[in-house]
Amino acid sequence: MKRVLFYKPGDIRVEETEVPVPGPGELVIRNVVSLTCGTDVKTYKRGYRFEPPFAMGHEASGVVHAVGVGVTRFKVGERVVAHNSAPCNNCYFCKKGVQSMCVDQLQNQVLNGGYAEFQKIPAIIVDQNTFAIPDDMSHKQAALLEPFACAVYGTAMTHFDLGDTVCVNGCGPIGLMFIRMCYLRGARVIACDMSDTRLAMARKMGALETVNVAQVGDQAKAVRELTEDCRGVDAAIEAVGLPEVWNVAFNMVRPGGFVLCFGGTAKGLTVPVDTTKLHYEQITIKGVFHTTPAHVNAAFELLKMGAISADDFVQNEYPIDDIEKAILEHASGSVIKNCIVYN
Ligand SMILES: [Zn+2]
Ligand SMILES: [Zn+2]
Fold first, then answer.
1. Domain assignment of residue 281, yes or no
2. Domain of 105?
3. What is the pTM for the complete model shown?
């Protein structure tokens, strides 16, 4: 079978390897689609925390090819999607109810290798975060599970009430998912991005107002001007992963407002925080990372309901041999996501 391996920035290769065999509790899935992701773009450009060469891709869905001993919930031929991680439910953080910080998950239980004709799913993920795909759900829709589960978790962690104004900074795939979820949760959404194409999609997802940040001098001010008395938004979400945008988000919320820092930045960076805003204006700044099984489950239910649609999020199809092209097109911003298809 073919799979994609990362060697060094700018050097990814499609290589042949053996089809995996499932151990006890494991599944081997024959992938039908794999989606490109901003993480793949970052990996392609600057590497990742794993030692190369490592297998790439983490947004796939397919059909069960083989089941390991003891697997009772799934059978060969069934259409399934597996999330890319699962917590141990045993460590300090899991027991504290912060499964996204699970030590075991961070170190061992993040699945990579979604860009492959076949993929082995560890027992811990089979048990907690693997789902049978209903007949009326496409493989592309199912493959949105991982990024959507992160956006659903982030939305759940963001404090706002019905009728509040929420600004989403960044309209990539995750930003668009945030816009949709905040809209569905009853917010008046303002969307910020540099691309008019993505801002048009933001409106489709439910944004009432859009700000093209390339066309305004002061992004925070431009957003504040869209609120009563320029007081600022009730909540701001950062879905870009740039410290300067984190700072813009801090400066666009009203006193008592809430900022969610979702976009991961390069390691070791710091951002200045206006102490007046933090103390005298009582703003809350919260970071959020990844997701939890409860939110993966919620995301799958929302995908079933059609809360978001693969028709909006997934544009072009490529064979696995064209993986580089698919990732670079994603990086260019001319598509929301691309899709690898297998035959
Ligand atoms: Zn992803
Ligand atoms: Zn744990």
1. yes
2. 2-144+314-341
3. 0.96
Which ligand has an atom closest to residue 292 CA?
Answer: 2
Distance 290 CA to ligand 1 centre (A): 10
User: What is the predicted pLDDT for the residue at 94?
Assistant: 95
Q: Are residues 122 and 157 in the same domain?
A: no
How far does the centroid of ligand 1 lie from the alpha carbon of residue 293, in Å? 16
For residue 186, tell me if it sits in a domain.
Answer: yes
Ligand 2: distance of its center to the CA of 127 in Å?
15
Q: Is 276 exposed, middle or buried (0-12, 13-18, 19+ CB in 10 A)?
A: exposed
Domain boundary among 287, 304, 328: 287
Tally of structural domains, the chain: 2
Residue 151 has pLDDT above 90, yes or no: yes
Cα(296) to ligand 1 centroid in Å equals: 13
State in Å: Cα 222 to ligand 1 middle. 30
Q: What is the pLDDT of residues 306-321, one digit of tens each?
A: 999 999 999 999 999 9
Q: Both 46 and 7 in a single domain?
A: yes
